[in-house]
Amino acid sequence: MKRFLIALVVMGVLVGGLAYFKLVFMPQMIKEIISSQVPPPAVITAESTKTEEWTERLPAIGTLIASQGVEIAAQVSGIVTGLGFESGQDVASGTKLVQLDIAVEQADLASADAILREAEVAFKRQTDLLVKAVASEANVDTARAKRDTATAALNRIKALIAQKAILAPFAGRLGIRHVEVGQYISPGLAMVSLQALDPIWVDFPMPEQNVGKLHVGETIELTVDAFGKQVFKGSVTSLDARVSQETRTLLVRGTLPNPDHALLPGMFANVQVLAGGPAKVITVPRTAITYSLYGDSVYVLKPQEGQPAPAKPEDTVYVVERRFVKSGQVREDRVAVTSGLKEGEQVVTTGQVKLANGSLVKVDNSQALVPPATRPYQ
């Protein structure tokens, strides 16, 4: 029994020592070995911040509309006897577009003209007799009334004839024709659209937080999908009198010269308002900004303290500091940073995925990303 107890104690000591070695000593030893090994510096690309002069741009989405635009329609009914235009034609103000049949009105005009001449002769005769004290004033008044009635009837027929000649109310470009010679036209039927294209307007909504930056006369730049990156310039000409309660936006109208009629009403437009004058801003490449739910950040290069300078500048090892910043406008491949960075500080432009605050890095700009010569149109 004594020997059995001794053997049991020895076995327990061995099992306990093995468990301590496996569960305590070995993990601690592995942890110390791993922690003592310093990973090699990560290779990244970096670029110094720049100070540039930017004019604040307020973006918006707008729609082009004609400065004047109507659907040409007749006031009266009739048969079309003549057309003075073709679809898509540019016309001057006052151009006769459509002529309706006026045969009946011309006959009525001749009859009314004859009645007026007869009334004028009768009125003159009664006036002469009144001077000779042969006719009474009542007869003169009756003759005057008949003359005035005949004049009004003649003028009414002339007005009706004028209504049957449909003229262009202003200069512009006509749309697709919806009328043919011989067709019966009822009042109000749209025959063709007329749009004044030079100048042309653009209407766009602007968020209410930007209302204080908007002023009449400020320059606007506009692009449309039909012409790629071609920029059309104009100016703000009017601001709406109220902010929409539904969208909390202010409707803004701009005017652009359009001498070649390239811009057409209804086009979708990307608008930018150049608000104020140029201001100095610190900018970094787009790739330097890391966007997250917690805020925008960049990795800033810091020199290692207490380390001797390397023989070659490209062998310099830096420590990165993750710094949260406030980003602003974006222009092509650069982003304005309104707070968090100073001029001349170096920021990581590629390789942020493998970094953490305090990581060691080396800069190698030989493989830096280069934007394509022609970027896809946005």
From TrEMBL:
Residues in Multidrug resistance protein MdtA-like barrel-sandwich hybrid domain copies: 70-188
Top-level taxon: Bacteria
CusB-like beta-barrel domain sequence ranges: 199-273
Gene Ontology MF term list: efflux transmembrane transporter activity
Cellular component aspect of the GO annotation: efflux pump complex
Family matches, as SUPFAM superfamilies: HlyD-like secretion proteins
NCBIfam families, sorted: RND_mfp (TIGR01730)
Membership in a protein family: Belongs to the membrane fusion protein (MFP) (TC 8.A.1) family.
Name listed for the protein in its UniProt record: Efflux RND transporter periplasmic adaptor subunit
Protein source organism: Hyphomicrobium album
